[in-house]
Amino acid sequence: MSAKFSVALFLVVIVLVQYTEAASKKCTWHGTAPTCWPSCPSDKFAIKENNCGKAKIACCVLGKKKLCCPKTLQGQITPEMAEAMAD
């Protein structure tokens, strides 16, 4: 990997992190244990699902919690980024 490519990639990552850092704070987990069949609000989309969400204590026995992010971020944020910055 060339040095120029590495620097360019680093700068792109920095810009993406700065852009998504503020916007993805609006990502939130939905679903209440022990039965979780949540829907995302109409202005958000589900980017990730799992049994526990952010709270690893209150996990779903049935269904899954959903990580919902603003539709304006669709295609611009990864599930990992959304989860790391979710409220």
TrEMBL record:
Q: Which UniProt keywords apply?
A: Signal
**Domain of life of the organism encoding this protein:** Eukaryota
Q: Signal sequence span per UniProt?
A: 1-22
Record protein name field: Uncharacterized protein
